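Appendix B, record 7
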Amino acid sequence: MPLYSSQNLKIYNSLSGEKEIFTPIHEGNVGMYVCGPTVYSNVHLGNVRTFMSFDVIFRYFLHLDYKVRYVRNITDVGHIVDDVDEGEDKIAKKARLEQLEPMEVVQRYTVDFHDILNEFNFLPPSIEPTATGHIIEQIEIIKTIIDKGIGYEANGSVYFDVVKFNETNHYGRLSGRNIEDMLANTRDLDGQSDKRNPQDFALWKKAEPQHIMRWPSPWSDGFPGWHLECTAMSTKYLGNHFDIHGGGMDLKFPHHECEIAQNEACTGQTPVNYWMHANMLTLNGKKMAKSTGNNILPREILTGDNTILSKAFSASVARFFMLQAHYRSILDFSDDAIVAAEKGYKRLMEAMNSLKDITADTKSTIDIPAWKQFCYDAMNDDFNTPILIAQLFEGVRFINLLKDGKETLNNEDLKSFEKAMNNFVFEVLGLEDEKVSDSSNDKLEGTVNMLIEMRKQARDNKNFALSDQIRDQLIALGIQLKDGKEGTTFSI
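Structure tokens (predicted):
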């Protein structure tokens, strides 16, 4: 029996504003589309948090024995600067500034994106399509929208007629907007635009002579609008009606609103059952922005090459930090917060290593099945990772009690407990036990033991000032000394 059949998963649906019981369109199968990066710069830490949220969601579906098709696109054309319909494509602008071919820009930052996600132990999606690889599909969708009377051509560009669409549908349902209010609050077109209405959005843009990214179409040599690619790729790989569409909260309007309109205009049905949106990441209580200097790249966290943090932190510590907040909550990143997360992460890993040495007893004094269900209840409640982590630390408490002989588990419960801890820590949350390599560990142990011997000699010679100095400097490095009858030991 698949695990999902015994669990009652609820997902917060942005479309309804409520948590809903998850019922897949096809039993045992999940189709999930997540908007990927526009590859014109190094991946933003906020993007990493968004993709990490959906990585955990992907992992949990797999853990529940669902067969998952996870599609996450690469935007390599069509995303205009400032998310509008007029102006320069973000990738074309970067190519012009750096005097590169656009596909050189795409290649450079796609590689960086994959490298960073590998560092943070992301599972790869099932399919990772690109916008430029689906120009033909996008042109066909535009033809259909025009044939339905909801798209129109003007001077070589094609626009989606939002007002016409809204006569039979509801544009603004996802973001809670009203088309009449939007029209009333928008300035009249100045006569220089080809749009019939201010809210209309581009399906195809005619390329100006200087525009370097262009393709032939029935209307002009040009390029597709940004919103169109996700409609083309999601429906191609998941069908006209699929389970989940996700992305950052900032994409809800206009990007996802426009996707819904395009899909409904083409197929006459709503495309997605569950819309999911991850919230933003702030830095020291403020919005992250390169222009203000309040910014840090994921790689700078790992190398320590920044002015924000006191030292470098491992990818698993950063991952653990991010998962301590619910994906729909704003999360503030700071040095104090990640230092605290590192302590919690180390406690968890130490407990996981201790768990291997615990032996079974004849009886159980801890209710493992109940604790295990609490872990599932956390994830079943809209993927609530902070509550899951709280339950895992309850598991850490169990481990310490078992080590001290204050509680016992029989063989069956011990195996179940160990499996569940490993499943949730490593398989679902995607954490890794980032131990120091054996050779480096040997060198560290040898160095600390040498200092312990020097401290002993200083104490024997009654040079307590030197003895205390060695101890204090080791503590400052995170190395604790413990004096006992058998000598001095240390822990990190």
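Remarks on this record: DSSP finds 16 helices and 15 strands in the chain. The two ends are 44 Å apart (CA to CA).
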